[in-house]
Amino acid sequence: MSPVSRAGAVLEIDLGAIVANWRLLVQIAAPAECAAVVKANAYGLGVAPVATALAAAGCRLFFVATLDEGIALRRALGAAAEIAVFNGPLPGTAAEFAAHALVPVLNDPGQIAKWAEAAGPHPAMLHVDTGMARLGLSAREFAALVEAPPRIRWRLVMSHLACADQPAAVLNAAQRARFAAAAARLPEIAASLAASSGIFLGPSYHLDLVRPGAALYGVNPQPGCPNPMRQVVRLSARILQVRQIDRGETVGYGAAHVMAAPGRVATAAVGYADGWLRSLSRRGGGTIAGTRVPLIGRVSMDLVTFDVSAIPEELARPGVMIELLGTGYGVDDAAADAGTIGYEILTALGARYHRVYRPPDPPQ
Ligand SMILES: *Cc1c(COP(=O)(O)O)cnc(C)c1O
Description:
Bound molecules: pyridoxal-5'-phosphate
Mean pLDDT: 96
CATH topology of the largest domain: TIM Barrel
């Protein structure tokens, strides 16, 4: 039996849509360069196929979060791509960065001093903090660096916006001004400020290079506005069993759902162990033949129950797939129902799904 027909749940990933999303961001950000952020296994979608498709489309710079992610990506992409690592080197890892030609983002004076000592001729990126207080040099540390420049070949100077998904937030312009002042002290070095949402704040945020992640994978970079990105994932789970239930009977753990009327309940092969979050209990839903069916009761580890009373019996029977993510209900919709953000829905997508990659259209 084929892996798809025996799979409990199938995750389809449209590499063509990811490439189309990257091309749209390239257009919007031009003449700035457009990198691709593929940390966390390309936001859960599979770093090797995603990065390979983007590299074939012309993307030359990739960002990951950790050294191990960088080594895995180097293996997938070969020598040509440029790979940068946001978290920078932990003590004692400079030689491995250099050996795999990984460009670290240096986030504090300690990382900078060690890199200058151990790997000075290998390029690095400089992160200055302008309002996240997470990683990056403080204003004072940056001033000290400009006073006494370390012997490092800087590839890029970057900062990260805290509120880019809220265009009206005053911190956006403040961060841009702080970063412009810092970048002006290093005029020879390319500068980068915007991730997905920052690209949509306008050209004054694009500088020399933009670093989108989530938008590549279909997350709306402008919450509350129509989504300009193409939907990338489709997720469906197979119905294992359908049962007739009387009024007053309960469904699932905690007897959390009480049937208000007699009806039919379908149990499908997906659960929180697959990243179908338990917070979707009683809130989420699925689609069968174009009709929404409510998720009832609690999401359990491997199973979820839906009220399929409104669906003709021949359409809601064991073996049929219920669509969980698709064109009508995407990652941002699931995020709203789960009380989270699309980023978390994507990165939670589980290892148990049978994954199908739809290749990009061949170049004309
Ligand atoms: C994750 C990350 C990005 C990408 O952010 P998205 O919002 O997913 O586009 C860019 N820059 C830094 C520093 C990041 O950590």
